[in-house]
Design goal:
The chain is mainly α. The chain has 10 helices and 2 strands; from the N terminus they run H-H-H-H-H-H-H-H-E-E-H-H. Strands 1-2 form a two-stranded antiparallel sheet. It is elongated.
Length: 210
């Protein structure tokens, strides 16, 4: 465990040690890093899914907020500035928030395409336990044996069609993709935040560049 945890930590060291400067995203960032360090890759994929969805909704709500009357009390001013935008975006599906963020120029066309691929492969596949969406037509070699009849059969079987190996297949998929998926989403967040909150997190950006 110590050896693997050290290796995993190095893979996300920068992400672990440098926050976003946006409090509402920090616990998800930190917990995802901890899951990766400990080798809890399926949990890391699911948390990255949540981090991505929350981030996109937060950016859309902020860019659509109402500028309140400065004479209002502070809590009322904040609530009034966010309420309409929150109602508008809080229930949006990931497909919609990706497309809206693209139209508003918050993310690039290439980033939107990548996120749609992730939406299908990771968000939908993992949250719905859809092995066909996760693996498509990928096959794995399987050997079946009937010891009583001394019969052995070998074939390449579609992964999604063999429930016996679903648990192992999901873990293998997560272990291969959790780190690059999180790093990609983390990079998108750090790239997009300054567009919405100019000047945010300059110290963390310098540390990441170093």
């Amino acid at each position: 465990w110590a050896e693997s945890a050290g290796t995993h930590f190095l893979a996300v060291q920068q992400q672990t040690q440098n926050g976003y400067g946006l409090y509402e995203l920090e616990t998800l960032r930190a917990e995802t890093c901890y899951c990766i360090i400990h080798g809890q890759f399926q949990a890391a994929v699911c948390l990255t899914n949540v981090l991505l969805e929350l981030f996109l909704k937060r950016m859309l709500i902020h860019t659509s907020r109402h500028i309140p009357d400065s004479s209002e009390p502070p809590l009322t001013r904040y609530k009034n500035s966010m309420s309409a935008a929150t109602v508008k975006y809080i229930g949006k599906h990931l497909n919609d928030t990706i497309n809206i963020a693209r139209k508003q120029g918050l993310i690039s066309k290439d980033a939107a395409k990548t996120l749609h691929e992730y939406r299908a492969r990771f968000r939908n596949a993992f949250f719905h336990a859809d092995l066909q969406a996760m693996f498509g037509d990928q096959t794995t070699p399987v050997t079946g044996a009937d010891m009583g009849k001394c019969e052995v059969e070998q074939d390449n079987i579609p992964i999604y069609s063999l429930p016996l190996i679903w648990g192992e297949a999901m873990w293998q998929n997560a272990s291969a993709n959790a780190i690059p998926y999180f790093i990609e989403v983390d990079g998108l967040i750090r790239e997009t935040l300054p567009k919405v909150f100019p000047g945010i997190n300059e110290d963390q950006t310098e540390n990441m560049n170093e």
